[in-house]
């Protein structure tokens, strides 16, 4: 949060630059949907409509793919250092407009303003990273098995990329998909989440201001009802060579099936069911702080949030007592309140799911230690930060992503038992554990089935690290050198008669 914002101040969430709210698609230029339809954007804190954007259809999606395909031949030939400079200018503009972007994030997504400002920095870190990586997409010279031959492995951009982004991190998700695509020399069509289209449009406006050539980047907004119509165009188009999607596993499976006919390259960052394990030898204070960072960031609306918390029986009560005190102290408020630490959930469906999970757990024998109720006095989309104990593996909150501020705690006795429980899920995105035993750290790290492991750490994300999962949590990686490779393919060149 800005240091000049008093703790009891109200925050004005209107951006200072009006042109960061274009309210239109960008398909080579700012435009309405072909049929003129629009849909409303709601403030989750109040439910009020405060903006509208185009409700696009198949014709708009096709126009974006046409333009991206037409621009690809020229964009791929732009020297890597020039592409890097353009992407870096986009980063610089994001940071120069950090406050305005944060206001948009808080207004349409609901997270506290200080957290939204942090998201902008996080998003920009990916843009900076891939600007720097653009000049390091190196191939290989392969030692030839015979004389008179030269063998090369060249890295080339895959082509037109379709990016489909979620609502929970409207700046970070679009940045870590689009930045590597542009750095690699791909052109992009993008469909942001219907709940949070405004931040994405603002970021594309800044990319345009950075000097990105016409046709390289396009954004098409659509309502929940018309999203399949838009995405199906890209799935069916053989010119769209890659899909990058973050969202639910059922949708990811659908995209994989529908991509089979055109054999697209896929990056799928899907659902999670992260375990958080606290062994008796852990630093309990550190474990509580790690859990607070991992679980309650963005109100629990993250795919890597701990969804199952296992605490060794010898320290269970002490851990729960400390955790409950921290959770009880969280300030729940709209983003306009500078004190807010937990904001509203994204919509009523999200609150209904959270409430269903808590009620079902309690009916099955769990106990509410803190929270466990809607905060109707604040508005329809608020739920109290909650700690449950006595949670068993068959409860809904242990089997499904709650995607809310609920910490379900279970006791365990030994290492083998808890590792088996942690892995007893179709998902494998993130896992966390706390221990001071170096031998145990090695064993458990090897045994956990997840793409991301936090060892004595609750905040693992970084632009230099590969982000992604295994099993039903998808495949492909975002961030790191591996994230750039997702937008490149290899061309093997064998040249003979050189002797």
Walk me through this protein's architecture.
The strands form six sheets. Strands 14-15-16-13-12-18-19 form a seven-stranded mixed sheet, with helices on both faces. The radius of gyration is 23 Å and the shape is globular. With 499 residues, the protein is an alpha/beta fold. It has 15 helices and 22 strands. Belongs to the aldehyde dehydrogenase family. The active site is at residue 269. Residues 30-493 form the Aldehyde dehydrogenase domain.
What's the arrangement of secondary structure elements?
Layout: E1 25-26, E2 30-31, E3 38-42, E4 49-54, H1 58-77, H2 80-96, H3 98-109, H4 113-133, E5 140-142, E6 150-157, E7 160-164, H5 172-184, E8 187-191, H6 197-209, E9 217-219, H7 227-236, E10 240-246, H8 249-259, E11 265-269, E12 274-278, H9 284-296, E13 306-312, H10 313-328, H11 348-363, E14 367-370, E15 386-389, H12 396-399, E16 406-412, H13 415-423, E17 427-428, E18 430-434, H14 438-447, E19 452-455, E20 470-471, E21 474-475, H15 480-485, E22 488-495
Parallel strand pairs: 7-8, 7-10, 8-9, 10-11, 12-13, 12-18, 13-16, 15-16, 18-19
Antiparallel strand pairs: 1-2, 3-4, 5-6, 6-22, 11-21, 14-15, 17-20
Helix pairs in contact: 1-7, 2-4, 2-5, 2-6, 3-4, 3-6, 4-5, 9-10
GO molecular function: oxidoreductase activity
EC number: 1.2.1.-
Domain Aldehyde dehydrogenase: 30-493
